[in-house]
Predict the 3D structure of the following.
Amino acid sequence: QVQLVESGGGVVQPGRSLRLSCAASGFSFRTYGMHWVRQAPGKGLEWVAVISYDASRKYYRDSVKGRFTISRDSSKNTLYLQMNSLRAEDTAVYYCAKDLSLYDTGGPFDCWGQGTLVTVSS
Amino acid sequence: EIVLTQSPATLSLSPGERATLSCRASQSISSYLAWYQQKPGQSPRLLISDASNRATGIPARFSGSGSGTDFTLTISSLEPEDFAVYYCQRRDYWLFGGGTKVEVK
C-alpha cells in the first residue's frame, strides 16, 4: 500500500541546518507532486513547500523562501527538505504528503507520512 | 491573499448527533476545497476533495457541499471515532483553515 516515512528530525540550534527525508513506497513516485506540511505543537496545519513530479516546479511559503529547499530523487523514491538558518518558529512536526492526482501539484493530499519532529532551540 | 475561516472553533456534540462544520473563503475559490480529519497523535486524513467528492474509503456519513465562498462538511451521525479536528484546504495555493475541533459533549 502507499506509504510515506519521514526521517531526519531532531533538536537543532537556531541558525543551524537540518535535512529531512521522506521515503515513498507503494505508488509510482516519479509521477506525483509531493509536499511538505508542518504543524507546530498544539497548532494547525501549515503548508511549507511543493515539488512537481519532474522537479521542474518548486514553490514555498513566504516564511521559508531562501532558507528551505525541496528536492526529490526518483531513483531512490525519496523526497527531501533541506532546512537552513533555522529559527525557533520552525519548530514543528513535518509531514510529507502525496498529491492526489497524477502529474499535479495543486492538491489535495491523499497520503501523509507519520511526521518527524523538528525542534529549534538553544 | 485568500483566507479560509473555519467555524465554530469547537463543536461539542454527542455520538449520534449531526455535525455541521463551516469553511468560508475570503474570495471565491469555485469548488477547489478539501476537508481533512486529524485525530490526536495521528497524521491528517483526506475526507473530501473538490468540495463534495468523498475520498477512497471514507464512510458515507461524511459529506461536503458548497462552492464559491461558503463550504460545509456534514457528519450525519457522529460515531465515537469521529471526534477529531477537521481542516479545510484550498486547492492550488495549499492554504489551510484554522480547524474545527469536534469534541464529546
